[in-house]
Structures are given as C-alpha cells and as structure tokens.
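The material for today's practical consists of a large collection of protein records. Getting from the letters to the tokens is the skill we practise here. To make this concrete, we reproduce a full record directly below:
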Amino acid sequence: MKAAVFHDPGQLEMRTDLRAPEPGPNEVIVKVSACGICGSDLHLYRTNAHRGPSLLWTSPEGYEVPGHEYSGTIVGTGSNITDWHIGERVVGVTGGGGFAEYVRVPVNPFQLVRVPDAVSFAEAATTEPLADGLQMVRKANVQPGENVVVYGVGIIGLGVIQALKAMNVRAKQIIAVDVSDSRLAMAVEVGATAVVNPRVDEPIARIGQICGTVPTEFPPMNPPDVAAVIDCAGFLKHMDGPPPLQQALHLLRPKGGRIVCFGAYEDKFPIDFMPVIHKEIAIYGSMGYSPADLEKALDLMASGELDRKRLISHRLTLEHITEAFEVQGSPEAIKVMVTID
C-alpha cells in the first residue's frame, strides 16, 4: 500500500511497498480518504519531539507512519466485531498510521465513531481537534461576562473559539493571540471579539487595554481582567518571546483565574511561577477528549451549527506529503488536509 514514511526531522517520503495492516480480533481496517496534519505531527517533523507509538504506527517492514486524524470507510473487520460493518463511513483516531491507504483502528468509543451523511470526509477528519476544543472549553468553565484568551489559533484554537460560541458561553471578550494575521482574521470570522499579534503589540499590555485591569494592593500588581487562558500553542523552540504559559500567568486576574494547557512542549524552559501563588491560579492539563465530545463534534458539523470546511486552507495528495508538512508549518496555513486516493 501507499504510505508516508517518517525517517528523521525534515525527512518524509511516500512509499508504495508497505504491507497493508490486518485487523486484530477487536479492530477494523479503514480505507483512508482524508488525514489532517496535527500540531504534534509538526513537532515530530521539526524536532523529533514525542517520537514513538503515540504518533507513529510501525509497519511490518519497520517503517514509521504518522497521521492520527483521519476519516474513511471500513473495508475489513476483526473476528470479534459485530456492530461495525464494511462500507460504514467513520472517523478514526490512533497513534499514527493515518497517512496511508489503510489503517488499523481499535473498536472503542475513543477511537472510532460513525460519520453522519451530511459531513464530508475532509470535514470529518477535523473531528478530533474539535473534540479537543470542546473538552478545553469545559475545563476552562468560562462564566457569563468573563474574558477569555486563546493562545494559538490554528485548527485547535479556532475550534476552541467555535466551541465557545456553539456551547453558548457568554464571554464578554474572546481574544485570539497568534503571530499569523491570516489565522487571526479567521479567528474573528468564527467568533473572536479581538485579536493580538505579539509581533505587533505586547500581549499583556494590549489585552489590558481591551479588557481593563484589576489593581491589587498586595502584592502590588495591575494585571488584565482575564479569567481564563486556553493555551493551544505550547512551546515552540523557534518562536521568539516568552512561552504562552509564562504570559498566561501574568495575564490572569487575581483569585480564580484558570489556565488550560493543551499545546505540546518541544523542550523545557525556565518559568517565573510566583504568579500562581500571588494570584491563586488553577492550571489544568487537557489531553484529548471524551467519547461524547467526538459525537458532539460531528453533530455540530452535521447540523450546520459550525463550519469546519472554512478551516481547511490547503488540500494536497499523499504523493506531496513533504510539501503538505512544509505548508502546514507556514503562517498562512490553518489546516492542511492530505487526501488519499
């Protein structure tokens, strides 16, 4: 079968000689139609970060195949499978293997879900990142009238903003922070009330102008009136300036501020942690989603309550996998979708 093989940072190739996977007793085989490039895939491609079974499927020949956000059609079932059938349209989520003609998917509610007829394969391949956003919004627990900041508005951060709107979270301000003007423009289209580009404005000062500040006598400080920060950017070694987590600690108002950390970290970095104590900040990690989030994401797409098609900025075929990764790493890209014929 055809598959994209990862060798080392910056080294991907499309091969045609891999053996197709066989289903285990509790698995199905999906013929892939579309697979999205995730931020974690980019971390791997750039720096070898997180290399292992969480991002890569190892073929019988020993080749490593990335890709974990995909959709397609069931073409084979394991011996124990009775409730899933050949020909069903599905979303699959695995630890790699999606950039290939065929992928093996365990049958459980975290990794396999049916696709409604009204949702295209390309849209369906964005289900997992939208489900991630739904979970982050739950964890942030934004209350009516509060201000929330979303760092990083690629497909994940834009999904967070879409989720905030779809879940009727009546925030006062939804502020998107990113270095890409095209992504910030899309953030406004899907519901952000204000945007900040750190290459143009210092984020803490600018967000303080947008939201107002909360002067405090002890310890003396005057932070912006921000109740929650959702960090979809993490730590990118090539980016200038303090990481979003450090900025979030300085952004939050005293008492009751929340940070939800989702974006991956390419390396360690020093951090001033005293604001956590001074402001009594709560920090939550968010990894993935619940099965209900996968279903909800597809329901929102099928009903037309939110539009994921507009977030697919580029479409390339598997034969152009290296170009697809390079494009995904550019500031202009939102979501690069790789199609498999």
In short: The chain has two domains: 3-126+308-339, 129-285. The mean pLDDT is 95.
